[in-house]
Amino acid sequence: xxxxxxxxxxLITVTGKKxxxxxxxxxxxxxxxxxxxxxxxxxxxxxxxxNVEVTDKGDVPEGYKxxxxxxxxxxxxxxxxxxxxxxxxxxASRLSPxxxxxxxxxxxxxxxxx
Amino acid sequence: EDKVVQSPLSLVVHExxxxxxxxxxxxxxxxxxxxxKQEKKAPTFLFMLTSSGIEKKSGRLSSIxxxxxxxxxxxxxxxxxxxxAIYLCAVEGIIQGAQKLVFGQGTRLTINP
Lengths: 114, 113
Fold this sequence. Notes:
In chain A, about 0% of the residues lie in helices and about 50% in strands. By secondary structure, chain A is an all-beta fold. Chain B has about 110 residues and is mostly beta strands. Chain B contains no helices and eleven strands. In chain B, strand 6 and strand 7 (about 60-65) form a beta hairpin. Chain B is globular, with a radius of gyration of 14 Å. The chains are: A mainly beta (about 110), B mainly beta (about 110).
């Protein structure tokens, strides 16, 4: 089954404790993205990757890092989480830059930073 | 600044009613407009519109784009409780040389039995 998986699905942590949210896709997609969703703000792109070792900043990259060492994996790293990073996070992937309508979203990770 | 604005932000209706959700946009180098439905999980794709005046239809849902006035509407007829969700509008554009998808805030639709 074609899918994007994220782990963990729920996480409560404290300010400053480094964490990683994993994302993996099994569709051999080149393009992967991370979004955060906050009430009243819709989805905002954090980082995206066009292929292995190629990443770029989205609209809200501050406080986040990513890496793309393998095509299937695109982890999101919060080196020193802060309460304003409490949000719902989605990883997504698609085959090509033009096929937004075929963008697959992961199930989401709800992060709370206290 | 590129932006997508949806209205209303929240809507409560009774089962069987017809609803119209609005999406207006200002996005550089417009390529397409997409509608998503989001229940208690990830967004799922509904429609993609690229041309003005051509209605896309799927069952009780339909959508149309007006590229001159820079807006789109999503209609749902004979609503059912299963239509309760957040509906997201997103616009694809070429912004500062990169393809980007700009999302609206979403409309939270609640259908009461």
